[in-house]
Amino acid sequence: MTRLSGEIVALHGKRAALMGDLARGSKELSASVAGFCSRLAEARCGMAKRTKTERAAFLKNLKSEVNARRREVALDLGEVRRSWSGRSC
User: Fold this and answer.
1) Reduced to 3 states, what is the DSSP secondary structure of residue 35?
2) Cα–Cα dist 38/82, whole Å
């Protein structure tokens, strides 16, 4: 009986140590996940800023190219109209 009582006390001690280890591990894991989430948010914010400037530059270039093509087409149409009407440049 004494031996059984000693084993029970020892198991209670091991259980308490295990619960403490689990609690510490849980806190460490929570801190690690929180750090990861904050780094991920920073990376996402940086990527959003970078892609915004890239999109703006792309659209600016696209608009200038489209306007250049429109001017070319307008000049071509003007030349075609003049040639059909029989007028020279």
Assistant:
1) helix
2) 66
Name every residue whose Cβ is closer than 8 Å to that of residue 89 and which is 6 or more positions away in sequence. 79, 82
How many Å apart are CA 28 and CA 22, to the nearest integer?
Answer: 10
- Rounded CA-CA distance 89/81 in Å is 11
**What's the average pLDDT block by block, 10 residues per block, for the chain (89 residues)?**
85 93 95 97 97 98 98 95 80
Model pTM score: 0.53
The pLDDT assigned to 80 comes to 92
Q: How far apart are CA 70 and CA 68, in angstroms?
A: 5
Whole-angstrom Cα distance, residue 14 to residue 6?
12
